[in-house]
Design brief:
Number of helices: 4
CATH topology of the largest domain: Immunoglobulin-like
Shape: elongated
CATH superfamily of the largest domain: Macroglobulin (MG2) domain
Strand content: 25-35%
Largest sheet: 5 strands, mixed
Number of strands: 8
Strand order of the largest sheet: 2-8-7-4-5
Oligomer: single chain
Helix content: 25-40%
Order of helices and strands: HHEEEEEEEEHH
Amino acid sequence: MVRRLMRLAGATLILLVFMPGNLVAHSGGEASGISVEPSSVTAGGTVVLAGKGLEPESERQLDLVGPDMVVTFPTATTDADGMFSTTLTIPAHLPAGTYTLQAIADETMTTELTVTAAAGQAAAPEPANEAAALVVARSRSGVVVAAIAIFVVVAAAAGLLLVVRAERFGRPS
């Protein structure tokens, strides 16, 4: 039993030593990010959201975040060079204000967009509190969830190994 546990711990340790290279996401570098053209639009108009220097062949959830609201757009997929470009139609009912466009994957890239209200629309209300303006939804990729699960299994195996060794070798004769 102890030998099996030691083999399992050794195999897990080997996985942890060699796996981080696979877990490292594209860091992006200085040229990574997203941009929007035009940076100011009337509600109901369209903008082009583009990203560059991102992780290649990855999906990005696109959101428009304003005070007390989030507008979710379809996802965008980066090409082999880590770039994407998509046209977004800004909802006509949005009140005037400054919004944040987000491209979410392992990290969240943001850019500002100023929306002018369509005829008959009001200005955006202020957030209910300061914390509401700072909250950003977070999602984890499958790789991150797998890494966490592996860490939990390794920790449990190490704990079990310590208990077995203490039971076996810790008793006085």
